[in-house]
Amino acid sequence: MKVRTTTLKNNMVVLTDNIPHLESASLGIWAKSGSRFEEENEHGISHLLEHMAFKGTKNRSARQIAEQIENVGGELNAATSIEHTGYFARILKEDSPLAAEILSDILQNSIFDAQELKREQQVIVQEIGASHDDPDEQVFDNFLLTAYPNQSIGRPILGTVESVCNFTPNAIRSYMQKNYVGDRMIVTAAGNIDHFKLVEIIEKYFSKIAPDGAKKPQMAKYIGGDKRIISKHEQVHILLGIEGRAYNADGYYACQILAKILGGGMSSRLFQNLREKRGLCYSIYAFSWSFADSGILAISSATGPEQISELVPLIIDELKYATQNISEEEVIRVRNQIRASLLMSLESPTARSAQLARQQILWGRPIPMAEMIERINKITANRVKQIAIELLDKVKPTISALGPVGSLADYQTIKKYFSK
Question: Cα(310)–Cα(18) distance, rounded to whole angstroms?
């Protein structure tokens, strides 16, 4: 990686990863402002803003925004997460100035027309409906609501039908003015891109952005608990988890490796022992998801109602077994998986641009690939076993289940499984 970094006078950071043999570039503008930055009366506004940014500016109609980037063969897109929102373009190298200008236009000159807002609110209402029809999404949303109750970090990114339909153009402008400020905005580009030319363009188009002023989000407080929905689905969809580790916490990498050993692929313990050997489920995997100040280690599975009473104790047994037995061979295999994934991501300028943004948001600087691999290679079997012991000490599980859940043991019984 030959990453260059420049911090502008208004505190915006510009990072570029030049790949001179490419004919294209991927450009992104990221705001450290996702759903957890919302007040209670702003639930869903980050995602709505992402949609509305493409619906017309003082200089372009929604159609002109789409046509101008597609006339040169480019693509525009955006995404909202819990902790940040990204707006990005993929273009040929000579069209980078156009992409930067369009992105600056939608982020500073959007008019948030009332009629366009009504139409987009209905689109998001349909999106919310679609998420409710998807058992995996519903289980996941309920999991976060239960793990972090009465907190912005636990609320669904999409918002509710009521909250989304109540937003006005002025509410969106106010939210954007509060949160889209220099020290929370990052520009990243990867591909055939000239760093200093991009800095000039960003300085020109974003000179009016305020340098700071965004309010810090509410600190996350993991609580845990139980949320079940009885439905007519054929399978029981269940997400069982415990508190994990934040991005900057000691044990972050060990927690990532533990999750992959448990359920990170077809060779993982959960897949081999519960799916292949016992046939208790079709789908099962584990993941470690970290935030700035908290994290989750969870196992997702789907199984028949007859198998759920046997499956859940065995999942917990696998978690407990990890506190006693982790082999060096397993750790090496997972380290190789992570290393391969990181190196493969270098082949995509879009992935490289997004990776730069995440690193700057989470760690305050781009992390060289060699440094990341060195950190991962330092994790030993004993360290993974130790993190498993730490996570399961006085554990407060979170359970989210949907389907014919009648044979699933009650929360206190499941909690006792961890201490047996």
Answer: 53
The 8-class DSSP code of residue 214 comes to: P
Candidate list 50, 116, 120, 318, residue with the active-site label: 50
Q: Give the integer Cα–Cα distance in Å for 381 and 390.
A: 14
DSSP state of 218: P
Structural domains for the chain = 3-134+149-205 (3.30.830.10), 225-417 (3.30.830.10)
Residue 1: is its pLDDT beyond 80? no
For the segment 358-379, what is each residue's pLDDT rounded down to a tens digit?
999 989 999 999 999 999 999 9
C-alpha 54/C-alpha 213 separation (Å) is 25
Choice between 1 and 8, residue whose per-residue pLDDT is larger: 8
- Angle ∠(311,286,234) on CA atoms, nearest 5: 45
Helix (H, G, I), strand (E, B) or coil at 113: coil
- Residue-level pLDDT at 394: 87
Please say whether the beta carbons of 172 and 44 come within 8 A. no
Assign 346 a pLDDT band (cuts: 50, 70, 90). Answer: confident
* Inter-residue contact 253 to 376 (CB < 8 Å): yes
Determine the Cα–Cα distance for residues 292 and 273; give it in Å rounded to an integer.
33
Tokens describing residue 374 = 């060195």
| pLDDT score of 106 | 96
Helix axes 169-179, 45-52, angle to 10 degrees: 100
Pairing of strands 236-243, 283-290: unpaired
Q: Which has the closest alpha carbon to 90: 204, 1, 189, 187?
A: 189
Q: What is the dihedral of CA 148, 280, 265, 236, to 10 degrees?
A: -30
101 noted as active-site residue: no
> For residue 67, with 0-12 CB atoms within 10 Å meaning exposed, 13-18 middle and 19 or more buried, which class applies?
exposed
CA gap 202, 29 in Å, rounded? 10
Distance of CA 32 to the CA centre of its chain: 12
d(CA 27, CA 50): 16
Dmax (CA) for the chain in angstroms is 65
Q: What percent of the chain clears pLDDT 70, i.e. is strictly above it?
A: 100
